[in-house]
Structure formats: C-alpha cells, structure tokens
Amino acid sequence: MYMHKAKSITPYLLLTIVPLIWGSNFIVGKVLIDALPPFSIAAGRFLIGALILCPWLLMRKEKKKIAGPLMPKILIMGITGVFAFNSLLYIGLKYTTAINATLIGSFNPIVTIYFSWLILRENITLKQILGSVISIVGIIIIESQGSWSVLYNLDFNAGDLIIFANTFIWAIFTVLGKNVMNYLSPLETASLSIVAGLPFLVIVSGWELYHINITISWPVALGILYLGLFATVLAFVWHYKGIQAIGVAKAAIFYNLIPVYSIFLASFFLQEKVQPWHIVGGFCVVLGILLSSVKLNVTQQGGKVRNIRESF
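Above: the chain's sequence. Below: its structure in token form.
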C-alpha cells in the first residue's frame, strides 16, 4: 500500500521539481553572463548535455532510421532551439532582470499556438485569441514598467525586447518538434537537436573566447555544469517521465510554476525587487496562457454532466 502510494506521488514530485530547475536557468544565466560571453555559456551547457545524451542515443536498443525529410527539420531545430534561443536568452539577461526575462518568456505558449495554426494548420479558437490579447497586455505592462510615458515614447529595455523576440524562435523549435516527434521519441528528438545545434555554438564560442580574455573560476564551471546536467538533461528526462505517468494534460499545468519559482529565486539570490507591474503583468500573462490552453470537454449521458476534463 505504501509502495503504491509512493509510486503515485513520484511523477507529481518530479513535475514540481522540473519547473524549479528550468526557472533557475534564468538565475544562473544572469550570474554567468557577467563572467562568460553568451554563446560560450550555451556551448558549455549543451556540450555537457551532448556528452550525456549522445551515448544513450547510440546504445538504445531500438534504433530508428532517420529519414531524409527529417534531417532538415532537425537541423533547423538545432539552429533555433539550441543555438539561437539559448544564446539570445543569455544576451537578453545581460540587459534585463531575471524576473522580467521569466515573465516575458512565459509568453512562449501563446506564440506557439499561432505558429501551430500557421505551420501545422491546427485550429485556433476565439478563446485562444482572447488569451493571447490578455497576455500581450501583460507583456506591455512589464516592458513599460507600468508607465504610460515609456509606452508613448517606445523607450523599452533592450533585454526585454530580445527575450520577447526569442519567444518566436522557441515557437519555431516547438512546432518543428511536434512534427519530428511523430517519428521519433521526445528524448531522441532532443538529443538529435542538440547534436545539430552544438557545432554552431562551438564555432561562435571559439570566436568569443579567442577575442575575449577570460578566466573560468570554479563557481563559473559549477554553474555551467549545473545548466548542462540539471537544466538540459535531468529536467528533460524527469519531465517526460512525468508525462508518461500522468499524461500531457496534467503535466502541462506545472509549466505555470516556472515564473513563480523564478521570481522567488531572483528575489532571494539576486536581490531583484518584485514591482507592482511585475505582479499585474505576470498575472495577465499567466491568465492569458491558461485561457488559451485549457479546454473543457463536457460529455452528457441521460441529460446529466458525466465528465469535465481539462486538456492541453
């Protein structure tokens, strides 16, 4: 009985830890960007991820043949999701706070919905459009710091704009991933996209390190190790273990913990202050995501409501 209870708790525990790890990426990245150039941070992170995931990819029992049409998609996933997205995230963190980056980055699911409609021809509803409008209002509140003068003069923070533009890159990566995962497992897709994007990171990182004289201290090395081991490998594996155990619909709810964790971590470790516009704007972003993502399916039997299910 106790073993069964422990087994049922485990996926929920893992899915609670995963957004904490992903949220900490903003905090660690904010610290590392003062010591290392952005592409080098991303290169170190994914080099560690590749050293762990690639042996698994080679040793797995069931080896799937990667068809020709999949190769360009995996290459684009590597360029967008591994090379561009993460490097731009660290560049953005150089100019903005971890709290701003987290809240604006939470806009990712909304952009993904529109790209899914545009590229995959998935249906888009009025509720999703309304949700996107509410989220955009939240982004504007955060970027303008709740000031009409900033909005009127279009005097936005460069880092905020980079993080916002980055949500479109992540949407391309996600939509292509949905398509590729019709043929490959999530872990295979992630591993291959890392392999595809890593050479670009290594080349640009080499250029950075050649032109910038830096000394890698132990704290910096540990930070890169943390990003590679936890944010790149463990979080991804635990995320899909959770999905396997409780399903996509329930697991998706845990995404909303990322900004919550990040705000507390940034306040505690970076002494960043939570301002009123963070609360109002963040609320709008999360409300818009929930409104766009949650669909209530009601089935009736004998004139009575039989089941209401949330699906993402």
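Confidence is low (pLDDT under 50) at residues 1-6, 296-312.
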